[in-house]
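Run log, item B.
One chain of 314 residues. Sequence copied directly from the ordering sheet:
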Amino acid sequence: MVPVPFFHPFLNRAEEQVIVVPHDRRGPQERQGRPQRGSDQRGQRPQRGERGKGDQRRGDGARRPGPGGRPPQQRNRDAAERTKDQAVYDGPPLPPEITGSELDRAVSGQLKGLPEKLAARVARHLAAAGALVDDDPETAYQHTMAARARAPRLAIVREATGEAAYAAGHYAEALAELRAAKRMNGATAYLPIMADCHRALGQPQQALKLAQSPAVANFRPEAKAEMTLVEAGARRDLGQLDAALRTLELAPLTSKSREPWVARLRYAYADTLVEAGRERDALAWFHRTHAVGPDEITDAAQRPDDLERRIEEM
């Protein structure tokens, strides 16, 4: 799978619409279904000798749950789930040097619909995720999950969670979060990552459907290149090498730009040529890749040595 680079939306993207649902302002008794005034539920006491409905016994003397009771196993599972949910809500420890001011101003502006303290906490988790995503994507993902637990109806939070999940290799979760963000703000910038998630989940046909979205035509060159890489990769997944090569040949392989996306397009083309058995053509394109891209982007500098040996042995 040709990976799509991580865009750090929570650090430098601000195109999403803010959608905030007001907090539930009811008191705890109202939320739990407090009886209405005049209700027969108030003031009733069980008659003497009458057991509570949740404390019935079988004939052998063993307790059994009544209509309103739960078995001990269910209570234990509920307690474990509450503990797990609390851990997600708490998130990893926040580094003291992370204040939330690291976020792009437009992004932090999308948190203003939240109460002040809540917004500050969400901002710190998002900023921590942005700082960690390259070196420790799993912890970055946990930070975004903590932000999501606090503000699940903000598109920017769902976007950040989705892209951190992608970086950490949680492709199903990434796809779900990015779909949610897209529903909230209608943004199409997530399509390359969503398509690559489909590839990772063994769904190349779904990846091709996203690659053929009309919105792709309006992408910037780097985003369009990323979608081309995913589309070509999906064709390779399906064993359609000729179609993969045609997809890449329609891309700006000969662009004079030295942006990383040019090197990645050329590398994907050279690698597909190898798989198609066209080693000599691949050798030339690996050299062209190395000419425009630094070594940390691809291993194009090392690939020619192996290819040259293979060509000599033919």
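Observations after the first pass:
- The radius of gyration is 27 Å.
- The CA atoms of residues 189 and 219 lie 8 Å apart.
Flagged for discussion on Thursday.
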